[in-house]
């Protein structure tokens, strides 16, 4: 009931507690509710649309959008006093008709979303603590200043409640699916903590004063908009409202929608002009309709425009100002709301084109939403969390504790040049966590995570030494730094690995940052390699082995062998030869006769946006082959990758490069690929393979095979290859 509940006289609830009532008490409440309902019916025998009882309005909102906070069954038909008694279908055995708390007018209830309730706290009936109620002001304060900032909500410059409303038609099942689909993509674009996304039904649109508290109205239905509803939408626009039309029949200001069946559900090239006049070119799924201006005076349009890259330059996106109060709409006939994995996308080549443009699709959506007044700033960096020390096998635990006792200072701290790890048995929220000082909890029993299952990791880890001791964090600065103070001291048979669900300072090659959204497998593995060994003499191969291990970890699963995951030289994981979905970063230090190597790896498992992930490939494979492969998990894939890596290292140490190159070439994307040396104007060569040190070998036009190195400056390692200087 958060954001929806106000008691009489402006009282604000501080606790909502479940209690068990005896049958006699329930009967008394039922009689009381029936008496009150009868009195209300006598006072309001024929409520009109204008004087409709407030509780009826709120009951209707609750029925039509089960996601609205507070829309519980008890506030449905039977819970509202004044008009519609509950039918038998709304009752369960033993249920009663509840007497609703007093609600002010619907308009005021919507205003409450921006003012009254800061939080609703639940407590156990057996042990009810005193819960502090943290509010930023009284109702009187709010009435005088609707710009009051609530915790977790943006201060709207309009002073309106932060509502985005979706009108998706009247067909019950189809409109619900359409609403969830569009709400999902908009939630990825805007700050989720700043806005509330609601579905707007036709009845609510006609009766409720939604326009006073709506920052954006999204119209996304091919149903013809009824005349009375169209008038409401136009009235909203004339008051300065903002409208986004997504593949909708809604038009105004002389525009008309024309069908062009040859374009329907086909992938087309769109040229989109942004507000600063720069252009974005991308592949989109067309609705099959275009916009044309009707006869008469031509309107002055906004700067956002989008047309197909065809001979007719068909209009698919137009920005149309309206009225004297700043109202405007952006109308769109490109399916910007549909992901490439949508059922509407049938052909594999269409999926590839749309996935390749997925980042630009979000760029266009954010540009439109920002122009319409919404905040699409990057979401707040998540707060750091404590680390957990998790041994995979019981026999490691005692030696590990003994080692910590010898190497940590009296306060349990191990320092390195980059950070300090403070080992302790338990963690409390009062303890400070900073990027330079991180607590490490050693109580395994206290560990739990929704995003990492230790048992699943254990089941999938089949190694002799690697990955046996985990430093785990929900949110860490970067896993590459976590092992810095331990890598030279901890016994190598303990197999240290750092795993994080998210990173705030993820690192890529050189000065590049690595984005670390939820659903990305993030880890740094510690390995040691003797200098005088096959791999010790060819350390550049380590990054190749790691990227190969990720691909093989997926494609070695029975029935997953055709998932089109590949390696790109020198350190990337790719979908086909189209899109990057992972990368490897290797830092090595030679001490005496041993290389101490940190292998950082991140690859997308379940985070579809803004690029692509492994589970996208599985979903697309299922669609194309009528298969039922299950999505994969980050914890199992990290463990499988470490397992494969250990086998590859052992094979390399035994047989050298030739022991692993056949598998590497099986999965790499470069066979017969042409590149230019030194830049776009350089000589053209053909990639033929790797040399004995792991660098590329290319064939020149005269048939000569030479080794090439990256120039050290390029973002894409294949963009500016150079011949090494002859000694």
Automatic annotation (TrEMBL):
**InterPro entries on file:** aa-tRNA-synth_II/BPL/LPL, Biotin_CoA_COase_ligase, BPL_C, BPL_LPL_catalytic
Tell me a GO cellular component.
mitochondrion
The molecular function terms of the Gene Ontology recorded here are: ATP binding; biotin binding; biotin--[biotin carboxyl-carrier protein] ligase activity; enzyme binding
Q: Which residues form the BPL/LPL catalytic domain?
A: 455-653
Q: Which residues form a coiled coil?
A: none
Q: This protein's superkingdom?
A: Eukaryota
Q: Does the keyword Cytoplasm apply?
A: no
TM ranges: none
UniProt GO BP: biotin metabolic process; post-translational protein modification; response to biotin
Q: Is Ligase among the key words of this record?
A: yes
Provide this UniProt record's keywords sorted from A to Z.
Ligase
Q: What ranges does the record give for the region Disordered, renumbered to this chain? A: 32-94
Q: Where is the composition biased (Polar residues)?
A: 34-54
Pfam families annotated for this entry?
Answer: BPL_C, BPL_LplA_LipB
Tell me the protein family, please. Belongs to the biotin--protein ligase family.
> What protein name does the entry list?
Holocarboxylase synthetase
- Species of provenance: Neovison vison
Q: What is the lineage of its organism?
A: Eukaryota, Metazoa, Chordata, Craniata, Vertebrata
Query: Gene encoding this polypeptide?
Result: HLCS
